[in-house]
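Side project, low priority. Logging it here so it doesn't get lost.
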Amino acid sequence: MEQFIKTIGLGITVLSSSGIVTTAQEKPNILWIVADDLGPDAGCFGTENVRTPNIDKLAYDGIRFTQLHAVVPVCSPSRSSLITGMYPVSVNCHQHRTRNKTALPGTVLPVTEYFRQAGYYVSNGDGTRPGRPGKTDYNFAFDKPFFDGVDWSGRKQGQPFFAQMQIHFPHRPFKTDPVHPVNRQALTIPPVYPDHPLTREDWAQYLESVQQVDHYVGRIMERLEKDSLLHNTIVFFFGDQGRPMVRAKQFLYDEGTHTPLIIRFPDERKAGSHVDDLLSTVDIPATSLVLAGISLPEHIQGQDIFSGNKREYVFSSRDRMDETVDRIRSVRNRRLKFIRNYYPARPYTQFNTYKVTMYPVLTLMKVLYKREKLTPGQAAFMSPVRPKEELYDLTNDPFEMENLSADPDYAADLEHMRRALDEWVARNDRGVYPEDREEIDYWAKDAEQAFQKKMDSYQLPVDISDEEFLRWWEGRLKAEQ
């Protein structure tokens, strides 16, 4: 194992395992390992019944951040934020997805350009399939590539790199782990979902997909070691948003925004420690630029995680997702979550092709709601309407099931959180509302065709009843066990 002799910032002299003294490059490499739809569900984050030795080792060697929240609970706006350092609502990247993409406003550039200007090689690769490009699901137009290659191997000798390695898991469809199966019976199902065999199977498959993430994290770290890069590379590991579950992805409850963050420094500073400060994913690009010694452009809306400036709030947003038109905003501090629904007359579960065809527990909850077999907290999410405002005491109600917006004991808290969100919306929310009708109609037609195609692949009619669909899901997941 490489040992440090001298540390001066991040330009270091090291003694290699062979005993040869070498001088590292002056600037550190920055590596982002980004997983799709990852909740804080590794062993090092307290999740039981999941096997994540590589992620756990990364946490042991680095700093574990327990309160990172995504700016948007779906990939394309979230990733647009990561690559710009801006809130998606500030740069017209807030709809998921857009056909007629526009250029970034004003002087805003992808952060890759600032790395390039500082002499960095920038790359974006598929962490599960070496040699292939990674995900570029961004909601803005650009006239030239802003990645130099698929990984760091294309850089010049001694040139620092900023690299992303994208891991598709645990995005649905889940990939099971027959070598290390999760014990279905040992799982604790969050109370927002019915404790049902279908739920347990779906949850277990999610955790086994997290184990797939762990496998590829291990492979990437092995590659760094093989390429003798561990001594000068700062590694970030995080998800683009929270879990791919019914009430999580696409929604602003913690389950949809909360994702793990681990940062490993090559000098093992604060190794094995944890930080509980509130962080936003918009802080990750800002922190990366600062660690590379690059001055932050004035427009960057995130902040350096290591600056000592602690966030009082984190903000998240949700707009149209595929064909499903919506608008939700939220603000969270350490104790409270406030959510504003701009379409209270619409159900949370208004039709969405992706959710309907990929989330078996959604169908289960529809059936149990009709049968009045859901708890009040579960049934609230299935209601045909929703409140205009939601307020949750996260200390007493971590699953956000008891809306306190009408509770007189929380009137002062409600007003305080309202003001915080109003100020943020006024300052940052530059989205155009309502969205162009042609754009909405395009995605509605696209979703209709996608729904037909998916149901054809299932060999099911598009007008199948919820009860029949539930029986099909039960048979399918049993077959996949």
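Brief comment: The two ends are 41 Å apart (CA to CA).
Revisit when time allows.
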